[in-house]
Amino acid sequence: MITLRSMRRALLPSKTLTVYVIKMYIGRFLGILIGLCTVLQMLDLLAQADDIMAAEGADFSSIVSYLMMRYPQLMTQFIPFVGLLATLLTLATLNQNSEIIVMKATGLSSHKILLPLGVASGIIALAHFAFHDTIVTKANADLEYWKENDFAINLPPAPDVRGAVWLTEGTTLVRVNKVTKAGSRVILDNVSLIERDDLGRMTRMQQADFAHHQDGKWTLFGLRNFNINTHETTEVEQQNWTIPTPPERFLALTVRPKHVPYRQLSNSIDQLEREGLPTDTLKASLMQKIAAPAAILLMPLLGALAAFGVHRSGNLFMRLFSGMAMGFSFFVADNFMLSMGEFGVVPPFIAAWSPFILYLLIGYAVLFNTEEGSSPRVRPAKSQPV
User: Fold this and answer.
1) Do residues 229 and 236 touch, judged by C-beta distance below 8 A?
2) Which spans in the chain are helix H?
3) Residues 6+ apart with CB under 8 A from 307
4) Which pLDDT belongs to residue 160?
5) Distance in angstroms (rounded) separating the CA atoms of residues 25 and 137
6) What is the end-to-end Cα distance of the chain in Å, rounded?
7) Is the pLDDT of residue 10 over 70?
8) What phi and psi values does residue 245 have, to the nearest 5 degrees?
9) Whether the Cβ atoms of residue 207 and residue 184 lie closer than 8 Å to each other
10) Spatial distance between the Cα atoms of 125 and 188, rounded to a whole number of angstroms
């Protein structure tokens, strides 16, 4: 307890000042977040209301259901941006009321003044990660399922449906149009099998209406065999499919990072790595699940221009604008690198964390340059004539 208290006193200002700054920051953060998301939700609802109410039997409850799915998406999307605005307003208010000058006069460094904002941002980052991992991922899947069914009411629970997948097993090329998990059973729709020789030439083609995995084996239904040599087609109602591919591999290949929580996405990556398949795209999305909430930790540094140096230059508006411009440029760089990672152009770690590390260094450089300044130049003494 004594050690923790000593660390708190060494890193943070007094308890009263820390609580005062955190309350000011959290109050502005919540106010801006709720206000901004409410306005954006109203605009989004105006664009979607006609489609929602066009469904048969739709009523006001359909609007409420849409709001419950869409509002969390807006919140998690704008939390880092709102953190930047809350930081700028908090520091600008403290500076305008000369509270920053008083803090500096008592011997507090710029780092101690900003650290309470960093503590509050850390709490928000943890809450953001938990909120996104438990609520937003489910809302993403439910809203997309609802849109695909034209906002129909009384829909059954959404099945675990995945998109198309290609894979190679030995000399056989397999294409599945859709992967569905119903309970413990995995169903593959519209299965195409292309068998090739050692030179890669097609020797036989098979198509099945669907296949399902049960009791440790695959079964094809509605199978049609096309003979390359005779150009004849034969049909089989049901046939065992001797392929060593487990159902988990099909599910892992079709996972949607925005629709699954962190642990499930990590398990899918492990499954693919055990089979020697590329996972860079999924790894970039996995790291982004941590890097996105962590972005708010940068906002006190990027917004520090609003706090320090204003009492010397007297131009508060320009410093607010500069802090906001730095924040916007970070969001642009972050989205750009995420896109590069999803396309496999850059390694996953660089795609997810390079903007964070770069702007962390930029923020500290600006803070030191603004607050510490350069040491005064010593002029040589003039020689006195004898």
Assistant:
1) no
2) 2-11, 15-53, 60-96, 99-105, 110-131, 137-148, 247-253, 262-274, 280-294, 299-302, 310-313, 316-342, 348-367
3) 91, 92, 94, 95, 100, 110, 113, 114
4) 62
5) 28
6) 68
7) no
8) -70, 120
9) no
10) 39
